[in-house]
Amino acid sequence: MTPAPAGSPAVSGSSHGAASRPHDATVRVWDAPLRVCHWVLALSVVTAWLSANIYDSLHEVAGYLAMGAVAFRIVWGLAGSTHARFRNFVRPPAVVLRYLRDLAHGRAARYLGHNPAGAAMVLVLLVMVAVSTISGWMQLTYTFFGVTWVEVLHTWSSNLVLALALLHVSGVLVMSVLQRENLVRAMVTGRKATGEHREDTQPSR
Predict the structure, then answer these.
(1) Cα 155 to Cα 80: distance, rounded to the nearest angstrom
(2) What b/e sequence results for 74-101 when a residue is b if at least 16 CB atoms lie within 10 Å of its CB, and e otherwise?
C-alpha cells in the first residue's frame, strides 16, 4: 500500500473501534532532524519557563536554544523531507475549522502527517516562540533594556507559549486515544502505521 501524501487523510473517518494490531505495517513519517528539533524545542521551552527569574544564565541558554530550533524548523519546513515541508501540510483556516467540527462529531479523518489542527498549532507555536525568544533577547540589548512594552511582550508571549504547549500535548493525547495510535512514540521513532492492516469503521452519523 502506498502511503498517503503528506497532509492527506491516511484513513477516512475516525478509528473508533479500530484496534491497531502488532503486525500493522509502518512507514517513516518524521525524519531525524525534525524529531530532534521537536524535542529540543520542547525541552528548551520548558527549561526557559521554569528557570525564568531564578536561573538567569540557564534561562538565556534555553532561550537561545529555542530560537535556534525555531530557525531550523523554518528552514526544514522549506527544504526538509515530505512531511516536514509547510507546503505539504499547512491548510487554510476553513479546512482547519471543518476538521475541528468533524472531530467534535467523532468523524475526523486520520492523517499520516500533521492533521489540519495540528498543522495550525505548529505554525502558531513557531510564531509565538519566535516572539518570546526575540523579545527576550531584546531585553538584553542596550536599546531595549528596561523598556516596558518589551518586557510585557516577553512575559505574555512566554505564558502563551506554555498554554499552547499544554493544549498541544492535550490534543496529542486525545488523538492518540481516539485513533488508537501512540503519537508520542511516533515522534520518537519517526514511524506511524500506514493503515494497511487497520480495521477502521465509518462512524455513525
Answers:
(1) 32
(2) eebbeebbbbbbbebbbbeeeebeebee
At residue 8, the pLDDT reads 56
Taking each helix axis from N to C end, the angle separating 116-138 and 56-79, rounded to the nearest 10 degrees, works out to 140
| pLDDT of res. 9 | 60
Ranges of each domain in the chain: 27-193
User: Which residues of the chain carry a pLDDT beneath 70?
Assistant: 1-24, 195-205
72-129: per-residue pLDDT in tens? 999 999 999 999 999 999 999 999 999 999 988 888 888 989 999 999 999 999 999 9
Q: What's the count of helices (H) and strands (E) in the chain, helices before strands?
A: 7, 4
Grid coordinates given for 171:
490534543
In the chain, the amino acid numbered 139 is Q
Residues, the chain: 205
Q: Which fold has domain 27-193?
A: Fumarate Reductase Cytochrome B subunit (1.20.950)
Q: Residue 192 forms beta bridges with which residues?
A: 27
* Distance from C-alpha of 148 to C-alpha of 151, rounded to nearest angstrom: 5
CA pair distance 134, 97, nearest whole angstrom: 30
Residues 106 and 71: their CA atoms lie apart, in Å, by 36
